[in-house]
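Morning. Coffee machine broken again, so started the prediction first thing and wrote up yesterday's gels while waiting. Chain of 140 residues, entered below exactly as on the submission form.
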Amino acid sequence: MHDNFFHKLKVYYEDTDSGGVVYYANYLKFLERARTEALFSLGYSNQKVKDDFNSLIIVKACNIEYKKPAHLEDDLTVRSFVKSITKTSFFMNQIITRDDDIIAEAKVHLVFVDTNGKPIKIPDEIYSKFKPYFCDTIKT
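Came back before lunch.
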C-alpha cells in the first residue's frame, strides 16, 4: 500500500467563469499547487531542488479527465500519489474531490531536468524521500 499526499483548497471567484463553475484550465493550477505542497511536505521546494541539485521538475505530459464541475466556494481536496518511477521521471496520479464526489482525475508525467532542460537522474536524496509514496509497480 502506498501513501498519499493531500492538499485542501477553496474555490475562489477568480477560479470560476461567469456561471460560477471552475474554468477548466484552473484545475491544472490546483494540481500544480498540490504537487508543490507534496514536495514541500518532504522538506523541499522547487527553489531548493534548483539550488541544491541544479535541477528542475517539469511536466512532460498531463492527461486530465473532468468528471463533475466544481463551483464557487466549494471545498476541494487534491489527493496525489506516485504511480510509478523511472531513473529520470515519475508518474503521479492526482484526484480532485468534493466530499465523496470525484471532480477530476489526472495522470501527470514529471521529469527531472538540468537547467538546460536535459533529463537527469532523480537525485538519490529526493528519490529516497519519495519512496514511501510509490506504488508497488516501479519501472527501471
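Helices lie at 26-41, 46-53, 124-130. Going to sketch it on the whiteboard this afternoon.
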